[in-house]
Amino acid sequence: MHIGLINRYHDWLGLPDLEPVTIGEGNTPMVHWATWDSSRIWLKLEGCNPTGSFKDRGMTVAVSQARYAGAKAVICASTGNTAASAAAYAGRAGLKAFVVIPNGQVALPKMIQASAYGATILAIEGNFDQALNAVREVAEQESWIALVNSVNPWRLRGQETGAYEILDDLGHCPQALVLPVGNAGNISAYFHGFRRRNEGIPQMFGIQAQGADPLVQGHELDNVNTVASAIRIGRPASAHLAKEAVQESRGSFYSVADSSILQAQEELAHGGVFVEPASAAAYAGLKALYHQGRLPHGDIVVILTGNGLKDSQTPTLWAHVEPHVVDSHNLLDAIGQLMNS
To answer: By the 8 A CB rule, do 86 and 148 touch?
Structure first.
């Protein structure tokens, strides 16, 4: 039985004595994927959270605190995952949820999940960064509406629990952590989670997509583009925290091409792990670091942040979805031919 992250890690979260808003988040699988030379590769499957992404870790804490503080609604800017998580936890808490998206830049199917949970979708002109600025202004003006993007410190406290689980599951600190970086909150949350537990800090590698890699380029980007929509961000709100995490852990930022992301997504899926493109970016980065001889010896954990069903369109770029039409009387022969092809 999943008791939820607040009940499991209450003493580490610094929350007041409140009633948790939970859907049984956390306790996600950590799967031993392979051993490459002396590096043992583990995949942390965050897509197994209730709404299909790591966002639920932070949202249970942020929404619980918001309800405790008297909020009547939550608001966020999102291209998909935050929207779904915010809407689900707001619904569970009995609060209204408002999701702001950049007009024309988010495929409406990505909003189906948030809409199903009961969120109201609002579109404004501009990009994601402008949408985030807009919701921040709204939350600053009205105390009854809580901002639940990762700039909310309670979101990041909740996301620290990913580090706690890794330490609990492995029994020690891994040598390295590899994860995708968009708005840059998650990498900093893991860093602070490891530091708070004081059992060691892994070398942290933040992976971005080429075309949306401001932390690799060293400056903010106004025009970003990548198949990995969840990390298609040119002005990361938590850039300063991410830089601290990478510098203090002796890690680095690294970017991968869309072609490598798609290849990684296919490789993972053919091994039974279907993830969204942003998660595949982390695996593509892992492979690049390995081929460059930059992975340390020992346990390496890759954070796969979202389920592949979050984006059903991108896999059509590599997946063969058209069926092979065969005669029912020749089905076995057809299978035999395909086995040998």
So the answer is: yes
- Known binding residue 162? Answer is no
Tell whether 330 is covered by a domain.
no
Give the model's pLDDT for residue 59.
98
Q: Please give the structure tokens belonging to residue 120.
A: 């109201």
Quote the CA–CA distance of 331 and 309 in Å, as a whole number. Answer: 30
Q: Residue 168's domain spans which residues? A: 5-53+154-317
Give me the phi and psi of 243, to 5 degrees please: -65, -40
Q: How far apart are CA 189 and CA 242, in angstroms?
A: 9
Six token digits for residue 283: 């695996």
26 assigned binding-site residue: no
pLDDT of residue 24: 96
- In the prediction, which pLDDT does 144 show? 96
Residues 162 and 282 in one domain: yes
Residues 140, 260, single domain; the answer is no
User: Cβ(232)–Cβ(209) under 8 Å?
Assistant: yes
- 185 is known to lie in a ligand binding site: yes
Q: How does 124-133 read in b/e, with b if 16+ C-beta sit within 10 Å? A: eeebbbebbe
The DSSP string of 194-258 is HHHHTS---EEEEEEETTB-HHHHTS--SS---S-GGG--SS-TTHHHHHHHHHHTT-EEEEE-H
Domain count, the chain: 2
**Are 132 and 216 found together in one domain?**
no
Average pLDDT, the chain: 94
The reply to whether 282 sits in an annotated binding site is no
Tell me: is residue 70 an annotated ligand-binding position: no
Q: Cα–Cα–Cα angle for 212, 218, 221, nearest 5°?
A: 40
- Do the annotations mark residue 307 as ligand-binding? no
Give the model confidence (pLDDT) of 220-245 as tens digits.
Answer: 998 899 999 889 889 998 999 999 99
User: Does the annotation list 186 as a binding residue?
Assistant: yes
